[in-house]
Amino acid sequence: MSAGRRSRTTAAHDAGAGALRPEGEGRVRPDGEDASGPNGENVVVIGGGIAGLASAALLAREGYSVDLVEARDAFGGRAGSWEHEGFRFDTGPSWYLMPDVFDHFFRLLGTTAEAELDLQQLDPAYRVFFEGEGEGEGNEGGRPEPLDISADRDTNIARFEAVQPGAGRALARYLDSAQRTYDMAIERFLYTSFSSIRPFLSRDVVGQAHRLGPLLLQSLERFVARRFTDPRIRQVLGYPAVFLGSSPDRTPGMYHLMSALDLTGGVLYPQGGFGHLMDVMVRLARESGVRLHAGTAATAILTEPALRDLSAHQAHPAPRDHRARRSGGRGRRPRARATGVRVRGRGGEERELPAGVVVSAADLHHTETTLLPRPLQTFPEQWWGRRTSGPGGVLVMLGVRGPLRELPHHSLFFTRDWRANFSAIAAGAVPEPASVYVCRPSATDPGVAPEGHENLFVLAPMPADPELGRGGLDGNGDPLIESIADAALEQVARWAGIPDLVERIVVRRTVGPTDFAEDLGAWRGGILGPAHTLAQSAFFRAGNVSRRVEGLYYAGSSTIPGIGLPMCLISAEILLKRLRGDHSAAPLPEPESPSTEALAAPLPPAGRPSAPLPTARRP
Fold this sequence. Notes:
This protein is of the alpha/beta class. 31% of the residues lie in helices and 17% in strands. The chain has 21 helices and 20 strands. The strands form five sheets. It has a seven-stranded mixed β-sheet with strand order 7-6-15-16-17-14-18, sandwiched between helices. A five-stranded parallel β-sheet has the order 9-2-1-13-20, covered by helices on one side. Strands 10, 11, 12 and 19 form a four-stranded mixed β-sheet that branches. Helix 2 (50-62) runs parallel beside helix 20 (565-580) and helix 5 packs across helix 6 (167-189). It starts with 7 loop residues before the first helix and ends in a 19-residue tail after the last helix. 54% of the residues are buried.
């Protein structure tokens, strides 16, 4: 993914960042105090995506001395950006959902999403195009009219009613249930490391057991089908499973909570794109005292036998006893303890960064199977062989001449038999046709394309299989990847009524599963991570602490709570709570009010009682 100019994140923040600084240099927090962490410990964070940057910022403000190493020349990970001939493309996430989670995280750093981002409300939130009868047989087949999803709940209720009589009232009840489930997830399930069962024995959780059981044990597909008969409505309500790297028939019904976001509050967009969001994350990490090293690849997590310093640990217990909690529980004594990370710079030179805490926010499969020897792997290769990956995908970034008013900011193109679509992907076959997602950020952000042009991002979900190949610039990717891209573009042009779409393309770049596997270290070349099936959600998902290496932690989409930018921010907060020995389920208390003083102050110490977030301000 190196064609074109480097991203704005690289240009603005990374000049010279790959050179590791001498020991002790730059270890001063914004308040001028020494940045040595609890018990004088250093932390090395591996991976400069949103989870790594968020983890590093929180730990630096907690008082740790933090280095973050990123193998690529730009920070952002999957949320990267690419610029070429005046076009600026986000190469990963493009939906700004769960805005309360973003704002809560920013408040922990003494600021707000409002202060950091120019968020635009999208209306329609997105448009859904449907395949017609006889599609693919040389005729249009009476394709249904597209359905616009509004930012307003009442408008959506009315539109569902127009599609299916009685669906409006059913949607109102559905959204009420989604909101209750979302609130409970935030308060009890998303911000916990599952290191204690006590939060789940509370009266409110136990009192909801009659609701939670059916939501966990039936699929989202069945949950929706019991309430709606029209296939178009079923597809709209089942699609959030794709955000979770799964399919409606494999995703627990609990995840209908996602509809409390897009169908009630709409979808937002940060002006400047998600590349700008990552610029903000980089700046906040720096301001928190993190030392960032781009172009610096972690090649090994360094360890020593766990018992070597046992007597020293007993004689001088660490503050808050956070070392004693590193085994990950479950009655298993760690075999080793982390002592640092070996890294390789841009020129090939290697160096060891000592650390008492190592946090890997890189892909968990890569971390476990590449950076650790087999005896120290909590999640070895055979463990992954029993897991389900989220989908892979073919991405197509297009610069298009002239207007594309037929497409709003977000568009979804649903095939009629999408069960066959999902089944093909699960079986490792290329679906024909594929359900396609299209983002046109130039509908909202004039800065992403030259005047008189449009910016399009097309995603065709595919099997997570690096054998499908690499993408390329101007049609020069591997033949299968380019043919998948051609089919997706033909489908978009025909369904949306843009017959000259292909002729108007002036920039084209494709990305395939091999790119994700080799450039991002993504397990099986997937675009998201392990799918949110029942067996891979909540406490069944990989935990955020090694059971074999004391002092080794994980953050990001591979671990709890799961996939997506908001989940990655939450994973950073769960990491901090784990280090504090905080077993609570609620989000951390926020500063009373964002201010310069709050920005300079560390987060509340673990010894301070953690009151629940006020209802009006909780995420």
